[in-house]
Amino acid sequence: MALAATQVSDTKSESAVAKTASSELIACPNCDWLYQARIPEEGGRAVCKRCHTVLITTRQEAGIRILALGLAITILVAAAVFFPFLQISAAGIGNRASLLDIATSFRSGALVLVSAATVMLIVLVPLVRTLLLCYVLGPIVFGRRPAPHARIAFRTAQELKPWAMTEVFAIGCAVALAKVTDLARLEFGPAFWMFALLSVFVVIHDAYVCSWSIWKSLEDAE
Amino acid sequence: MTTAKEAGLVACRSCASVWPVAQEHCDRCGARLVSRHETSLQQVMAWWAAGLICYIPANMYPMLVTETLTSTQRNTIVGGAFEIAHHGEYGIAAIVLIASVLIPISKFMAIAYLCLSVHRHSAQSALGRQRLYEVIEFVGRWSMIDVFVVAILSSLVQLSVVASIHPGPASLTFALSVIFTMLSARSFDTRLIWDRSDCNNNELTEAA
Fold first, then answer.
1. Closest residue to A168, CB basis, from B84, B145, B153
2. Whole-number mean pLDDT of chain B?
3. What is the 3-state secondary structure of chain A?
4. Interchain CB distance below 8 Å, A27 and B130
5. Are the beta carbons of B167 and A172 separated by less than 8 Å?
6. Confidence band (pLDDT; 50, 70, 90) for B57?
């Protein structure tokens, strides 16, 4: 399947390659194989023949969809941070926690580091990444010149990708529920459902981001 | 039919563009250009060792301290999973065990194997090893589940004397262990797998 969709052709000869490092060439970041870049048809993808890494994906109106999802993610993160996330009650005593409380729950000594890491991984990194992508893609989608420092912004967004752990946190909630079932009664707050939706949006959002296409359009727009 | 290196070029790992080998920074995205990270394996093993060192106390010290009216309970990672299983939630217990024990341990073994295989110019299939690397990179972050569970529980279960949960020291070392192994996997230059594999030709005919 993946191979059938391959649209990159091998470079014909070394002499053609050695002439200049033109933007027409594309090298697989994982195995260094060199190709003459050819943009696949809409909805198709270009796959490295040697290591099967996806090099280019094209989706209809990816730019505007990334922007729309980015906006939705920003709103959901902001809301999910402040509304109560989970509520608990036992023996007449109750407690509710927002994402902010959860992220700052390690209060003593070195455990503050864990707290900082949690805030980063589940709130800050996904939010910053989304905002950076909007910043980079906004002007391009609307046919303007790229924003200042758009390249650094996009590179940072791509570097942050593995550190955005929204969906991991969602599974963590399920485990937390199971752990306290015999201790107290747990209920979901409104922010929990926002967060569940958020996890889905983040995954779709990532699927639309094709690094090569965005670099290309950044370059073309300048 | 060649690699960027053999063509006298250097590829940018951040944006896949190609430049003359002497160039230091990518003109398209600004990333530093390195044809092959020669010290990649040392970096990988350094992070790997740091991760392994942190993983040991992460399993010996309690992850969660649960205080109720009558008792104080300290649970390690594995102890906590058995506790959940004891309540009949086998699926959840399995998630915890997979995320906090199976994934980290197989990750330690897989990274060590990949480094050794590159170092010894292994004849194992390069494609297979590339796949293994991709799996490691994908599953690594899922180990953070247990840290997040501790964060959720210790902020939520604060019911004065009835019940309260506090994070134990293992939550710090475990989080560090996960972060170090993620950094370890990310420092690995997968192009080394392909450079030093003898089976390039086989794969080419397969792909043609």
1. B145
2. 84
3. CCCCCCCCEECCCHHHHHCCCCCCEEECCCCCEEEECCCCCCCCEEECCCCCCEEEECCCCHHHHHHHHHHHHHHHHHHHHHCEEEEEEECCEEEEEEHHHHHCCCCCHHHHHHHHHHHHHHHHHHHHHHHHHHHHHHHHHCCCCCCCCHHHHHHHHHHHHHHCCHHHHHHHHHHHHHHHCCCCEEEECHHHHHHHHHHHHHHHHHHHCCHHHHHHHHHHHC
4. no
5. no
6. very high
Q: Cα angle at B71 between B66 and B77, to 5 degrees?
A: 35
Nearest CA in chain A to B80: A179
Q: Which CATH architecture has domain A62-221?
A: Up-down Bundle (1.20)
User: Is ipTM beyond 0.85?
Assistant: no
**Interface contact A31-B92, CB threshold 8 A:** no
- Is B73 in the A-facing interface, judged by CB distances under 8 Å? no
What residues of B are in contact with residue A101 (Cβ under 8 Å)? 155-156
Name the pairing type of β-strands B158-159 and B72-75.
unpaired
As a whole number, mean pLDDT of residues B94-119 equals 90
Whether residues A27 and B92 touch (CB distance < 8 A) is answered with: no
Q: Which residue has the higher pLDDT, B125 or B207?
A: B125
Q: Please, what CATH class does the domain formed by B39-198 belong to?
A: mainly alpha
- The third-level CATH classification (topology) of the domain covering B1-35 is SH3 type barrels. (2.30.30)
Q: What is the DSSP letter of B31?
A: P
Residue range B122-147: mean pLDDT, rounded = 88
* Domain ranges (residues) in chain B: 1-35, 39-198
